[in-house]
Amino acid sequence: DPVPPVAGDEERLRQVLVNLGLNALEAVGDGGTVRVSCRLGRADGAEAPVEVVVDDDGPGVPPESRDRIFEPFFTTKAKGSGLGLSIVHAIVTQHAGGLRVEQSPEGGARFVVSLTRSR
Predict the structure, then answer these.
(1) Mean local confidence (pLDDT), 24-35
(2) CB-based contacts of 48: which residues, under 8 Å, 6+ apart?
(3) CA distance linking residue 57 with residue 54, whole number of Å
(4) Greatest pairwise CA separation for the chain in angstroms
(5) Which of the residues 38, 74, 91, 105 has an alpha carbon 20 to 30 A from that of 51?
(6) Of the ranges 23-27, 41-45, 112-116, which one carries the lowest mean pLDDT score?
(7) What is the mean pLDDT of residues 95-110?
(8) What pLDDT is stored for residue 45 in this prediction?
């Protein structure tokens, strides 16, 4: 189903999607699956946010790391800087949105970006 447009800076929101997509692709490696989808959030009526969901079938984010995953310099990668997800979080927050990490139905990680609809 179509979803309404969101309010925000196109370049910055593109950076969010690119970073999340690249992280997912890196996590799954060769032969893995990354799925990007868009849906209306859980609120009722015109206030429901638009959610962009990035799912993968990689190893996922350990539950004990989920509270810290958006902190600057925190990483679960051997060669990561720990800045990518903190930048994503900052951009989403600057757009009055939300960002959360969950376990994906695909078995790996699910990142959900919630954004306000355009007025």
Answers:
(1) 93
(2) 40, 41, 42, 117
(3) 11
(4) 44
(5) 74
(6) 41-45
(7) 95
(8) 63
